[in-house]
Amino acid sequence: MTGRFVLIGTTVLRSAFLVLGMAVLIFFLVRIIPGDVVDLVSIEGGLTEEAQQQLRQELGLDRSKPEQLLIWLTNMAEGDLGLSVRFQRPVADLVTRALPTTLALASLSFVIGLALAIGIAVAAVIWPRSAFPALVNAVNVWSIAMPTFCAGILGILLFVLWLGWMPLLGNMVLPSLIIGLDVAGQIVKPLHEDLKEAATAPYIRTAHAKGLDRATIVWRHILPNSLSVVIALSGLIATGLVGGTITMEVLFGLPGIGKLALDSVLGRDYPTIQAVAVLLAGSVVAINAVMGIVARLFDPKLKT
Amino acid sequence: MTGTSDDPILTAENLRVTFADRDRTTVAVDGISFSVRRGETLSIVGESGSGKSVTALALLRLVELGGGRIETGTILFKETPDTPPLDLVRADRQTLRDLRGRAVSMVFQEPMSSLNPAHTVGDQIAEVVRKHEGVDKAEARRRAVALLQRVHLPDADRRIKSYPHELSGGMQQRVMIAMALACKPALLIADEPTTALDVTIQAGILDLIRDLKAETGMSVLFITHDMGVVAELADRVVVMRHGRIVEENDVAALFRAPQHPYTRQLLAAATMSGARRLPAAVSTAGVVEAGGTKAPLLEVRDLVTQYPVKTAGFKRAKTHFRAVDGVSLDIHPGEILAIVGESGSGKSTLGKSILRLVEPASGEIRLAGTDILGLKRPDLRRLRRHMQMVFQDPFGSLNPRRTAFSQIAEPLVIHGIAKGADLANRVEGLAKRVGIPSDMLSRYPHAFSGGQRQRLCIARALALSPKLIVADEAVSALDASIRAQVLELMLELQREMGLTYLFISHDIGVVRQISDRIGVMYRGKLVELGETEAVCSAPADAYTRKLLEAVPVADPAASRRMRRAAPGAVGLPA
User: Fold this and answer.
1) Is A75 within the bounds of a domain?
2) Are both B226 and B363 inside the same structural domain?
3) Are residues B318 and B381 in the same domain?
4) Where in B259-361 does DSSP place strands (E)?
5) Which residues of A touch B57 (CB under 8 A)?
6) Neighbouring residues of B374: CB distance < 8 A, sequence distance ≥ 6
7) Distance from CA of A133 to the nearest CA of B (A)
8) pLDDT per residue as tens digits for the range B38-92
């Protein structure tokens, strides 16, 4: 029992340090892009030198970089993400409005991917002489060879333009399917291999000797022992989703975090870029931490 | 008990099982016929590769899981005397599934890997009951508890929530048996169910199977390589070799008058583990007489070797497990000292500590007067010439990518003792000495049989003309007939070269044939040490007695007498 608390405690602590380190890194990376928001605004609005100075002062851009960093970190710790110069709104507001779309897209894609992968891999083990083993390879090769943005464009061509089955803007189904297929392709092959391996274990022979049918044997006896593979890969894939959703949001005009990130980068909107980048980095760290804990707790050998 | 009738519960006729590889087909079982009579215990006995396990797996068509194919034959199964016979070879999957686990159930060799690590043992037992009797969850759970009580698993209520890895090997096998008995099968097939267990645990499991059979009247097909186990358990015996049946008889008749030479060989190998010693083992060195005049070759005093125990969290381990806990002993030149004990007794750690392959925590080890524990690395390496080790797994201790020649030559090369033609001569001489023809020396380990591999290991150990050889379970992985040959070789070498052996084994039967003295280890301590015959005929320690009693005696009459004498044991027809 105490072992479990120690595990969770150390993981949380390590993750917090990691996010802090990345926040610092992000802060400086953002400032590598030439030109700040005042430059952009003055090109558009033709501000005088004096007005530019004043704006910089207001935004704190005239202070030294370390000073700016410290102010930003302190504010963030207090829950203040700052004000978006570009959109004239609190950054927190922008983020909370964009977040549900991204979360919905990511979780829908993930569930579709997991269901596809487990379904196909299990079917391929239950019916080894059917078309399912070939499907395992097909889906796997698809996800390796086909970048999601290409698949997205193809999907738009096929389902939106030619077949006319669905609208382009605000479409959630098509991007979820495209990312889901990509996710499935990454899990299905290793899962299938692991299931085949697990199927040769002596305890599977015991299960056959008990008179169980193939489906029960695969679901109850083989799959639980292969779930660690799925969990280990899920962590990797969930972090990949963070990137995948950005492309799809941009392509399908979905008002999510990805779209917000792109717009704020184009607008040199430091507070928003920083907030979004820290959020994305933080979620990757969080996913890994959770997966690490789940994998440990799932192992019956650590359940004592 | 009503005894056996002539009504067979299962009849295999002309059964032939093959395994197809990419380019060739191996015949594992070559047209055998036998039958299991209702209510009897039939034992199929044979050495590795005889096809006995394949036969067991073929009966429920489980052999197909491993790529085996039943080419010809019939397996007629009659669940009760009145049911019409059913040919299992031609039965469809549905019929087989209904039979498996209900009418015919199996117990396998490795209890740990035969239980699913992801489910509790209670769930795994309940699953069979639910599948075949359609009872609800609560009832299945109640039945699981009752079954675990029936196989004498202590604390059954709590144990059903355990995962397999939380149980000992003996407890796991009891769970497997409970699972097999769940639906009151008419036939129980047990494939080497006690081979992976310690001898005292084995005795408990054999008793359990015998009692349960007497209670339920089920038929038992018992697969084993151990003639001692056969004598204890079987009514009739089928002897298999190279996929064929060479002999079949009642157990008493088979042991009294074995017909086939192979059966005689098996019996000879097994009965050697009785009281008689190999003639070669008569101590020749003349130093064994207690407190002999010569100084001991090896002196061990208060030796302690411990391993850190891992604790949860990120704290460093603070506690230690004492694998060897204050052991003192002497070995005299030319003597064979055997150390026996069960798994976890610390006997292997003792052997490794003496060679300093693991670092002892405290104590003293002197080889011919030199303090081994005080030596620095280079001196230790020089001293190791005089102490060599032979391990249990001959395949694992030979490098698969080097020829037999280079394996034997390596110690000579490392110590800079010989090269060129001299080296070749020495290696060939050593190989010849252990019975490996010199034209085989250019081959790689996989081309040798298990017995030959162990001969290579012995030749390698002998290359440096050591004084002391530590043999750690050196013959345990070998079949009985091969084991006898390798032991014979070791004894010959001892006589000719004046070797001294520290012979580590779990098998007090083997040890008894060859050793001058026996030391018994239990939980890291040496609980008894004395002349072999004295220890075996009049053991002073309670644990030694238990160990000796647990060894199956390859004599049906004797083992049955013993059982009748034991209180609560079940009598069997003479």
Assistant:
1) no
2) no
3) yes
4) 298-308, 320-331, 336-340
5) 205
6) none
7) 18
8) 999 999 998 888 889 999 999 999 988 888 899 999 999 998 888 889 999 999 9
For residue A189, the distance in angstroms to the closest alpha carbon of chain B comes to 22
Measured over the CA atoms of residue A212, residue A213, residue A217 and residue A220, the dihedral's sign is negative
Inform me whether the C-beta atom of residue A209 falls under 8 Å from chain B C-beta atoms. Answer: yes
| Contact between chains at B62 and A205 (C-beta distance less than 8 A) | yes
- Comparing CA positions, the residue from A177, A170, A179 lying closest to residue A252 is A170
How close A14 gets to chain B, by Cα (Å)? 14
In a domain, A200, yes or no: yes
Which residue of A205, A228, A297, A301 to mutate against B (max B Cβ within 10 Å)?
A: A205
pLDDT tens, position by position, B360-401: 999 999 998 888 888 888 888 888 889 998 888 777 888 888
Burial class for B139, CB neighbours closer than 10 Å (0-12, 13-18, 19+) = middle
What pLDDT, in 10s, does the model give residues A51-70?
788 877 877 777 888 888 88
Q: How confident is the model at residue A264 (pLDDT cuts 50, 70, 90)?
A: confident
Q: Do B574 and B480 share a domain, yes or no?
A: no
Our count of domains for chain B comes to 3
CA distances to A102, A264, B323, B513 from A245, rounded to whole Å, are 7, 16, 56, 74
Cβ(B325)–Cβ(B303) under 8 Å?
Answer: no
Could you tell me if residue B407 is inside a domain? Answer: no
B116:A207 CB<8 A: yes
Phi/psi at B547 (5° precision): -60, -45
Is residue A52 in some structural domain?
no
Q: Tell me which chain B residue has its CA closest to the CA of residue A298.
A: B118
3-state helix, strand, coil in chain B (%, to 5): 40, 25, 35
The CATH number of residue B530's host domain is 3.40.50.300
Residue B169 burial (CB count, 10 A): 17
In this prediction, residues A143-156 reach a mean pLDDT of 86
Q: Verify that B124 and B58 share a domain, yes or no.
A: no
CB contact A219 to B (< 8 Å): no
Facing residue for B163 by CB, picked from A6, A216, A300:
A300
Domain end (from B135, B153, B182): B182
Say yes or no: A64 contacts chain B, CB-CB below 8 A: no
Of A10, A213, A304, the CB nearest to B97: A213
- Residue B67 inside a domain? The answer is yes
Q: Is A206 an 8 Å CB contact of chain B?
A: yes
Closest approach of B126 to chain A, Cα-based (Å): 11
Integer Cα distance of A172 and A177 in angstroms: 9
Tell me, yes or no, whether B136 and B193 share the same domain: no
* Among B182, B209, B232, residue at a domain's last position: B182
pLDDT reading at B489 higher than 60: yes
- The answer, for A129 touching chain B at a CB cutoff of 8 Å, is no
Q: Which domain holds residue B142?
A: 113-182
Residue A248 domain boundaries:
99-270
Asked if B117 and A225 come within 8 Å (Cβ–Cβ), the reply is: yes
Judge: B99–A301 Cβ closer than 8 Å, yes or no.
no
> Of A205, A300, A301, which has the smallest distance from its Cβ to B65's Cβ?
A205
Q: Is residue B226 part of a domain?
A: yes
Residue B84 lies in a domain: yes
Verify that B176 and B324 share a domain, yes or no.
no
Number of domains into which chain A is organized: 1
ipTM for the predicted complex: 0.73
CATH of the domain at A123: 1.10.3720.10
- Count of CB pairs separated by less than 8 Å, A with B: 86
Together in a domain, B335 and B480: yes
- The residues on B that touch A, with CB distances below 8 Å, are 57, 60, 62, 65-66, 96-102, 105-106, 108, 110, 113-119, 127-128, 131-132, 163, 165-166, 176, 179, 312-314
Q: Report the side by side order of strands in the sheet with B187-191.
A: B104-107, B187-191, B219-224, B41-45, B236-241, B244-250
Q: Is A37 within a domain?
A: no
Residue among B152, B170, B172 nearest B162 (CA): B172
Angle, nearest 10°, between helix axes A91-126 and A132-145?
Answer: 150
Same domain for B95 and B121, yes or no, is no
What global pTM score does this model have?
A: 0.74
Question: Which of A201, A209, A304 shows the shortest C-beta gap to B101?
Answer: A209
